[in-house]
Amino acid sequence: MNTTDLKIGEYEQKLDRIINTIRNRFETKTKSISENVKSFRARINALEENQKHTVEGIEKLKRSIKEYEKKLLETRDPSILEREKELRRELEDRQSQADKLVEAIGQLKDLIQKMQEEKKSVEIERKSTQAIFQVRGCITHTGLSIEPISEDEEYDRIRFTYRRLNPARPKITYSFILNIAESSIYSVSDCVPNIPNIQHEVDELNKSRNLFAFMIRVRLLLEALTK
């Protein structure tokens, strides 16, 4: 293993430790959300079962009321009239209970939807945070600045500028432009100064898609030019 590979390995190990910490933190959060969703779904199942029995009870009460209404047409027995009133009160109570169950189920379903949306947001935040640390890692370890230049019909263009390559002349900058085609193929232009073997590194980048390693390798090539 050469010196370049060793340095890249050191940078990547540091970044991997940070990324693993980020991943573990967000995985804990998403696991908690998933457990809450599971718990709410269990509650919904129980409420829906309760709702089913309540609706069955309501239908039974309606049938009983119809029977007593029929009896009232045949007789004016006060006890039948009183029983009909009791059944109607019970029907109202059951209907109110059913309405509350429907409302509770709806609220739980809304909560589940919000939690699922939160879970998606957490995953987006995890990827964004990870990307930020990757960029910060590159900047910290390579003295690098990254500047989008322009977009046209064929390419996205990004300027990479390296600093502090030469301890004797730390203000001197070295740069190149990374072109990204719509097909996601990378190419390099406007190297200042000209970088030997840069095309080999670009070819490796297009194979590996490891932009972090590419930026470090280019810096090491530039460091070699200053010696």
Uncertain runs:
none
User: How much beta, percentage-wise?
Assistant: 5-15%
Order of helices and strands: HHEEEEHH
- Which second-level CATH architecture of the domain at 143-225 applies? 2-Layer Sandwich
Count of beta strands: 4
What does the oligomeric state look like here?
single chain
Please give the order of strands in the largest beta sheet. 1-2-3-4
Overall body shape: rod-shaped
Mean pLDDT: 80
| Level-1 CATH class name of the domain at 143-225 | Alpha Beta
Distance between the termini: 21 Å
Q: Name the CATH superfamily assignment of the domain at 143-225.
A: Chromosome segregation protein Spc25
Major sheet:
4 strands, antiparallel
CATH topology of the domain at 143-225: Copper Amine Oxidase, Chain A, domain 1
Short description:
Acts as a component of the essential kinetochore-associated NDC80 complex, which is required for chromosome segregation and spindle checkpoint activity. This protein is α+β, with helices and mostly antiparallel strands and 227 residues long.
What this model shows, in words?
The protein is α+β, with helices and mostly antiparallel strands and 227 residues long. Among the domains are: 88-142; 143-225, Copper Amine Oxidase, Chain A, domain 1 (2-Layer Sandwich), CATH 3.30.457.50. The chain contains four helices and four strands, in the order H-H-E-E-E-E-H-H. It has helices at 3-74, 78-142, 198-208, 211-226, and strands at residues 144-151, 155-162, 174-181, 186-192. A four-stranded antiparallel β-sheet has the order 1-2-3-4. Strand 1 and strand 2 (155-162) form a beta hairpin. Helix 1 packs antiparallel against helix 2 and helix 1 runs antiparallel to helix 4 (211-226). It is rod-shaped and about 115 Å long. The two termini are 21 Å apart. The model has no long low-confidence stretch (mean pLDDT 80).
